[in-house]
Amino acid sequence: MTDTTPGSLAEFLPRRRHVLAGTIAGGMAALFGAGTAAASDIVLADAKNYPVKAFAQKTEADALSALFGKTATVSPKITLDTPDIAENGAVVPVAVQTELPDVTAVAILALDNPFTLSAAYRIPAGTAAAVSTRIKLAKTTTVVAVVESGGQLYSASRSVKVTLGGCGG
Amino acid sequence: MANTILVRANADGGSTVVQALIRHPMDSGFVKDKSGKLIPPHYIEVLEFAHNGTVVLTALWGPAVSKDPFIKFSFKGGKKGDTLSISWIDNKGLKDSRTAAIM
Amino acid sequence: MKRLLILLLAALLLRPALAAERVDPAADLKAFQTYFHARFPHVPPADFVNGPYAMDAGMRAQWQQIMQFPPYQFALDHGKELFAAAFPNGHHYADCLPHGGIGIAQNYPRFDPKTGRVVTLEIALNRCRVVNGLKKLKLTTGDMDDLMAYLTDRSHGRPVAVVVPDDPRARAAYERGKEYFYARRGQLNFSCASCHMQGAGRHLRGDVLAPALGLIASFPIYRSAWGSMGTVVRRFIGCNKQVRAVPQRADSEDYRDLEYFLAYMSDGLPVAGPGARP
What we know:
heterotrimer; A: about 170 residues; alpha+beta; Immunoglobulin-like; 5-stranded mixed β-sheet; 3-stranded antiparallel β-sheet; about 30% strand; B: about 100 residues; mainly beta; 4-stranded antiparallel β-sheet
């Protein structure tokens, strides 16, 4: 990549990936992916069983009932990583991970959002019970991470403050 | 459609760590445009990752997921050169998919 | 006669020293950087380019999470394609710029002795387009910020090295930029310095104000508030609107001169663009 200045300057800059590497993974696949990868290699996303009702609920209980048909009990074995004060309510990084065994699903809820359920993930066997994403929070709220482990639901929550930015849009 | 999926998949000691950034407006339906009209909801509903044809993650997303959404996860297995496929479909039925080599 | 001599002497002594009227960018630079280092002694000098993230630990942690996969990556990849693409007449952007445009962003804005004006890299790119029969790009957002993302990235880590040559027109442009920075404007009657010097590190509602030192080094930026990329000029216009001042044209001399001043004040700091901000 470009030659960076030796010494202390570059170390304060965020660690960079190769512009090229990032592009290659995406770009070359775009050029060659359709050709070299067998059609069976691409599993097409299918919205047939998308849980429309669950994403339209306005309480934690209703969202979990629609999605899993169960209620959740609080567990200290779930790590939910959210900022205390969101730098911007439109892009709030959320990371969920857990030591609970046999995890089959993870869900992220925001209790004061217009619709409570933000995202849900089906975790097949062999996939780590950890996901990171970025969500929108309409206002200061409690973010709840729900984990389906061994057929039961467990949860952890954290409060995230969302304030109006002063520096405009 | 122009490429909407950027993915970095790295084999790391028996597991593969996947990070993806997807270009999509993820309009919630609650925001108004300059003329005061509500911008209709337009967001990815399902996002699927597969390794050598086997699904390793299915994401079910709602409008609360941020614009140009990001996802990071990892799964056991996968080695350099293997194929990872990513595919999404949104509430309007638009879709995109691609494959990438695990590094 | 004696009275005349006394008057003459008084006039000589009381005449304001010409030195005070002479524009001295180097002295300004020292004073500017010293101010911020004294005010924020625990911030490593190079860290100033990270703006609010050098000021607030909670915001820094979120930024580091987001930077795992920066939201400007699409713009960066697209900028690379745009820069490499040939114009209809077969020429390229690289033909217009020193070193083919690679590794030069740290030297902009620069003073153009031919026109006597400050040229930003964005304006240089547009000049290249016009010379090759193309229309100018919008200076605030769109393809221009993607091109800038790529060119800035190719200077990643290089120390900002903007020159104010010993040319009265260059010094005048620098001085105009400096005056713009410190002048109050708008219904809210704020100057750039009100927020980015006095208010640096403080909260403005939920935002943390970035210090003026290093402010320009992370542009162009993907702003969560915009949901898209923008150039320095896009932000100048936004800031003007926020203090309820009427913004200038994007290619105005005021904005060029202001950018000249800000870049010069960040001399020696590493180019950190493209950047991500709230």
